[in-house]
Please model this.
Amino acid sequence: MVKNILFVCKHNIFRSRAAEEFFKKFNKNKKYRARSAGMMKWHKRDLDKDRGYAAEKKVAKEFGINLKVESKSLDSAVLKKTDIIVITADDVPASMFKENLFKMKLIVWKIRDVKVGDKNKEEIARKILRDIEIKVGKFVRDLK
Model:
C-alpha cells in the first residue's frame, strides 16, 4: 500500500513545493508518494502585485527545481489521503492539525520564508532551499 506524504506551507509557492520536488528527486521507494499544498491558495496576479517571486524562482532553478505558478490549497479530500503531513513553514501553526481527525503522523519543520523587506532575497532563498534539501534527504533516509 502506498503511503501519501503532504508537505504544507502557507501558500504553496516555495517551501512546500520545493520539499515536494526534492522528495520526488530523492525518493526511489515507490511505497511513498508526495504532494504539497498551502493553507491559502495564492494566485499569480497576487504574487506579482504583492510580494514578487523572482528570487525564489531563479534560485529554485539553480537547484533543479521548476516552481509552477499556480498553488494548490489544502482541503479535506487531500487530507483524507494523507498518511504523513510535514509542515515546512514557521508561519503555519501545528495546532491547526492538533485534532488530527485523519490520524496522520505530523512532522514540523520551522522554515522561514523570504520576506518582502529582506535584503539579498536570492541568498536567503538559497539558504532556505539548502535547509529543505537536507531535511528532505534525511526524511527520505528515515523512511526506509
User: Anything to note?
Assistant: The domain at 3-143 is CATH 3.40.50.2300 (Rossmann fold). The chain has one domain: 3-143. DSSP finds five helices and four strands in the chain.
